[in-house]
Design brief:
The chain is built from seven helices and twelve strands. The protein is an alpha/beta fold.
C-alpha cells in the first residue's frame, strides 16, 4: 500500500530492503532488531520523517545530500557504527532534529560533545534537549580537544585540525581559535561538566538491587527538568522520584538528597564528577 503512513517490521530478520517504484507516502518506519547492514534504499522515501534502526548490525552510514529529504527523527542506538565519518554524513540531512546513538562502538565513551559539535541541526540527542548554552560549551570543548589531538608538525594548527576533523572552519569562525594554553582551556571547559551515573531502583532509594544504570556527562548548570527525558527513557516510566548522592566517596545511606525542584540547576544540589543520580520508581 503506497499510501500507508506508518509501517513496522521489527524483529523480522530482514537483511535487505527493496522498494518497488511508486509514490510512497511512508512517514514512520520501524525496522528495530533486524539484520540490516545497508540503508541506502530507505533514503529514497521522500516523506519519511521517523526511522528506527535500533538493534541492527549496521556498521557505517554514507548519507548523500539527495537522501532522506524529510527525515526528522533517527534512532541508530545499539548498532555497530564505529567511525565518525558515519556521524559526519548525517550533516547531509538538514531536517534531522532528533538523534539517538546510545550503545554503539563509537559512542561507548564520553562523546556527546562530539556529536553536538558535528551536527548543528540536531536539537535533541539521546533523549535530552540540546540547549543553546550546552551547544556553545560543547562546540568550544570540541575545538580544544581537536587542537590538542593534532601533531605539532610545523603545519599551521588550523590546517591540521581541518584535515582531521569536521566543521572546524565554521566553528572557528563562530568561537575563534582555542587559546595557546590548550590544557588550561580544556580543564576550564571540562570543569563545567560532571560525569555521573544514573541508577534505576524500585520503591526504595536505599535499595541495593539496581534495575539498570547508565553513565553520562551532564552540564552542572543544566536544570533538573532537562535531565527528565533521559531518566524517562532509562526507567521506562514517568512515575518516579529523583535523588542525588553528590559525593562519590560518601556511601552513607542517609546522604541521598531529593531533586525536588525541576527548575533548579543540578549544581544547586552539589553535583560533581562521580555523583550518582538514583531514580526510584513507584
Amino acid at each position: 500500500q503506497l499510501q500507508t503512513k506508518s509501517l513496522s517490521f521489527g524483529w523480522s530478520r530482514l537483511r535487505d530492503i527493496e522498494l518497488v517504484p511508486g509514490d510512497w507516502q511512508i512517514q514512520e518506519l520501524s525496522l528495530e532488531s533486524n539484520l540490516l547492514t545497508d540503508i541506502a534504499m530507505l533514503g529514497l522515501l521522500p516523506s519519511l520523517q521517523t526511522l528506527n534502526l535500533r538493534l541492527n548490525p549496521l556498521a557505517s552510514l554514507q548519507i548523500k545530500p539527495t537522501q532522506f529529504p524529510s527525515l526528522r527523527v533517527l534512532n541508530i542506538s545499539y548498532t555497530q557504527i564505529h567511525c565518525w565519518s558515519s556521524i559526519d554524513s548525517l550533516i547531509n540531512i538538514p531536517t534531522l532534529r532528533t538523534l539517538s546513538v546510545l550503545h554503539t562502538p563509537l559512542t561507548a565513551g564520553d562523546v556527546r560533545y562530539q556529536v553536538i559539535a558535528r551536527l548543528p541541526q540536531v536539537t535533541k540527542l539521546d533523549g535530552t534537549v540540546i540547549t543553546d548554552k550546552e551547544r556553545t560549551e560543547m562546540e568550544r570543548y570540541y575545538l580544544v580537544q581537536c587542537a590538542r589531538s593534532v601533531n605539532s608538525s610545523g603545519q599551521p594548527l588550523l590546517e591540521q585540525m581541518t584535515e582531521k576533523y569536521s566543521r572546524i572552519h565554521e566553528l572557528v569562525q563562530k568561537h575563534g581559535m582555542p587559546s595557546a594554553d590548550l590544557g588550561k582551556q580544556a580543564n576550564k571547559l571540562k570543569a563545567r561538566l560532571a560525569r555521573v551515573t544514573i541508577q534505576v531502583v524500585h520503591r526504595d532509594v536505599l535499595s541495593t538491587s539496581i534495575v539498570c544504570a547508565e553513565s553520562r556527562s551532564v552540564i552542572k548548570n543544566m536544570l533538573v527538568r532537562q535531565l527528565l527525558p533521559v531518566v524517562i527513557k532509562l526507567a521506562k516510566t514517568r512515575n518516579f522520584k529523583l535523588y542525588l548522592r553528590s559525593d562519590p566517596d560518601d556511601l552513607q545511606d542517609g546522604n541521598w538528597v531529593s531533586l525536588d525542584n525541576e527548575t533548579r540547576p543540578l549544581s544547586f544540589y552539589g553535583i560533581q564528577d562521580g555523583s550518582v543520580v538514583r531514580v526510584v520508581t513507584q
